[in-house]
Write a structure and sequence with these properties.
0% strand, mainly alpha, 225 residues, 8 helices
């Protein structure tokens, strides 16, 4: 893994300012902007996987980014859906239990039961959230590599991809999380425009790191991928 390369590759492109600038402006498009940016990041991942010497894509194929971004969005949503369902069901159970038990038993007992439900659903949501966060990058990698949405939902293969390179995937996720924590407040200070630029940069960095991690997993698994 060349972690530093993920943060330098974009600036080595002769047209990096134009490409990153357009990526930032795309975020201003209502609803579809973030999806298009996801498609652009997916293209970076695809290029890294294919060892393209020019991994920073231009914007001459906007329609392709819409399609790819929608696929990446579907994958991310599907993997996080169990977390959303658990959280939602937990909230319903908590308020439902409080309403049903509040008038029939001691308030301390009712409070204890509500707390128990809250802790259980919270722990389950955390476990599912961690599982989703470690599987989404490898699922996205399979989508980028094959161009097939179904490949991202072959869960056995997705998990095997992560298991083949857990270190690179986990470290990449941590690096991106820390980078986002550092850049986002800085971007917000620059009249909001900086936030758009940081979003574009984080998308580029993430795409490159996840492409590298996928290649490490692919090499570890050999021809089985």
């Amino acid at each position: 893994m060349e972690y530093g390369r993920a943060f330098s590759f974009a600036f080595e492109d002769a047209d990096w300012l134009k490409k990153i600038g357009i990526a930032a402006l795309v975020m201003l498009i209502p609803l579809i902007g973030p999806i298009v940016l996801m498609g652009w990041g997916l293209e970076i991942t695809r290029r890294v996987i294919n060892l393209d010497p020019s991994p920073l894509p231009g914007w001459d194929d906007f329609g392709s980014y819409v399609s790819k971004g929608f696929q990446a969005f579907v994958v991310s949503l599907a993997y996080t859906l169990p977390v959303l369902l658990i959280v939602g069901c937990g909230q319903v159970a908590i308020f439902g239990s409080a309403a049903a038990l509040g008038n029939s038993i001691d308030s301390d007992v009712a409070g204890g039961l509500v707390a128990a439900v809250s802790v259980c659903t919270g722990c389950l949501a955390v476990i599912l959230g961690i599982t989703a966060s470690i599987l989404i990058p490898s699922a996205i990698g399979r989508l980028a590599d094959t161009g097939q949405l179904g490949a991202a939902f072959r869960f056995g293969e997705v998990f095997a991809t992560f298991r083949a390179a857990p270190g690179p995937y986990i470290l990449s996720m941590l690096i991106i999380s820390v980078t986002a924590m550092v850049l986002s407040p800085v971007g917000a200070l620059v009249c909001g425009i900086g936030a758009l630029v940081t979003s574009a940069l984080i998308s580029a960095f993430s795409g490159h790191l996840y492409g590298q991690a996928y290649n490490v997993a692919k090499a570890a698994r050999g021809s089985s991928m």
